[in-house]
Amino acid sequence: xxSFDAIIIGGGHxxxxxAAVLAKSGRKVLVLEAADDVGGAAxxxxxxxxxxxxxxxxVLNRLHPDxxxxxxxxxxxxxxxxxxxxxxxxxxxxxxxxxxxGAYGEVLTGASPSExxxxxxxxxxxxxxxxxxxxxLSRRPPDLGAMSLxxxxxxxxxxxxxxxxxxxxxRDFLRVLxxxxxxxxxxxxxxxxxxxxxxxxxxxxxxxxxxxxxxxxGLYYRLAGEVGGKAGAQIVPKGGMGAVVTAIxxxxxxxxxxIRAASPVARIIVEKGRAVGVALDxxxxxxxxxxxSAVNPATTIFDLVGPSxxxxxxxxxxxxxxMKGDAAKLHLALDRPPQFAxxxxxxxxxRLVIALSPDHVERAFNPxxxxxxxxxxxxxxxxxxxxxxxxxxxxxxxxxxxxQYAPYVLKGGWSAGKPKFLKAIMAQLEPYxxxxxxxxxxxxxxxxxxxxxxxxxxxxxWHHGELQADQMLMSRPVSGWSGYDTPVEGLFLxxxxxxxxxxxxxxxxxxxxxxxxxxxx
Length: 521
Prior knowledge:
- This protein has 17 helices and 19 strands.
- It is of the alpha/beta class.
- Helix 7 crosses helix 8 (216-224) and helix 7 (192-203) runs parallel beside helix 13.
- The longest helix is centred in the first third of the chain and has 25 residues, at 113-137.
- The model has no long low-confidence stretch (mean pLDDT 91).
C-alpha cells in the first residue's frame, strides 16, 4: 500500500486545481483519473480525422482570477489576451443580426439608438447586482448554524455592498432577485433579438425557461464570472478549452502532484467513520490522510462510499439533487467555413446565438418538460478553427454548438430520437448559413445520455446539479453540507456539484483545497 497526504479522485479541471493548491502547501498529492486523459468535459478532443474540438465546454467565461494567479497559469502556457474578447451575435430571420462587442456588450451594434441606451443602463445594473454575489464565488459558503467571526464579517461586507448601491438600487435588487428573466427584459428592452439572446444565456444548461421563477439568477451567475479581468467577458483559448487543462496540469505537476490516468477508483475505504484510502478497479489499495472527490456528489456517496456509511438524512438529500441535463453538444466537421448571412469576419469568430426572442426560448423549453425536444431548438454556435486553424485541416472548419433543450430521458429513447433531433438542428441552421448541410463531412451529436456515459456525469448535467435557487450557495450540494466537507471525516468534495457550481472556473477545487488547508494546517 502506497501512502499520500491527499488523494484526488477525478482529474477534471477542479480536481487538478485542488491537487495543485494542496501540493503547493507542501502535501504529497496523487490524482486518480478514470479516463485515459485528464480534463473531463474541458478536454480538446479529435472527433473526426484532423478535426479537434473542445468536448463540452467551448467558451471560457469564468476562469476564476484567484486560480490564474495562485497557479500562475500564464507562466504554464495559458494565453489569455486581455481585450481580445469574443463578440456575441444574436441572429435574426427577419433582418441583420445584432452584435455585442467587448465584455458582454460593452458596445451594442445593430440596434436602434433608444435600444442601445436601454441596454447600456440594463447592462450596468446587471453587473452591479452580479457584483453583490461575486464575492461568494471565491470562498466557502457561510455555515448559518455556526458562523465563524470571519464568515460573519464576510456577510457584513455583503450587506455593506448592498447599502452602497443606494436606496433605489437596493430596493430594485431585492425586487428582481428571484424574478424570471423574461419579465425583467420586457420591462426594460424592446428588441426581440437582444431579449432572446439574454433569455438564452440566463437559462443555458438549466431546466428552466425564461418565464420560470428565479431564471434571472442564471444571468447573475454568468455575469459574476470573469476572464481577462472583465466581468461577463468570454474568450476562445488558443488550442481550445484543453489549453486551460494543459496549463492547470502543468502547474500541478510543477508543484509535485502525481497524476495517474486510466486508474478508475472502485471505492473509498472508510474505517470507523473516517476515509482512509481508496481501492482501484485493479485491486490496488492506496492510503491517504485526506480523500478529495472531484467527481459528482451522488457518484461519490452512492458508488464510492456507499450509503450505509452515512446517515439516512444526508443520503436522502443527495438522492434528491436535481441533475438531469437539458443541453446537447453538436460537432460538425465541414469541408469549408460556413457563411452566416450579414455577418463579417469578426462575427464569424464570435459566439453565434439562435434564440429569436424569449418566447422562442420558452417554446423550445416546453417540450423538454415532457421528455420531448423542440422542432426549433435554440443554440450557441462557435467556429473555433477560424481563430485557431490547428483545430481543422487546411481550408476546412469545425462547428461546435450547444443545443437546448435535449431532455436526458427522451420519449422513445435517444437511439431512435437522435437522427430526428439532428435533422431539426440542421434545419434550424440552414436558413442562417445557406448550404451548410452540403459541406458536412462528419457529425458528432452528444445528448445528455452520451455526456453521462463519456464523461461520467450523472444525468449528463454539465453543472453536476441544477444551478437554481435551492441548489446554490448554502444549499450546494445539499443544505447543511455546503462547505466541501462531508459526514465522512477526511472526505471532501471539490467538483462542480459543490459551491459555486459548474463552468470552467476552478473555484470549487480552489475553495475545497483552501478549506482542507485551513482545517488541517
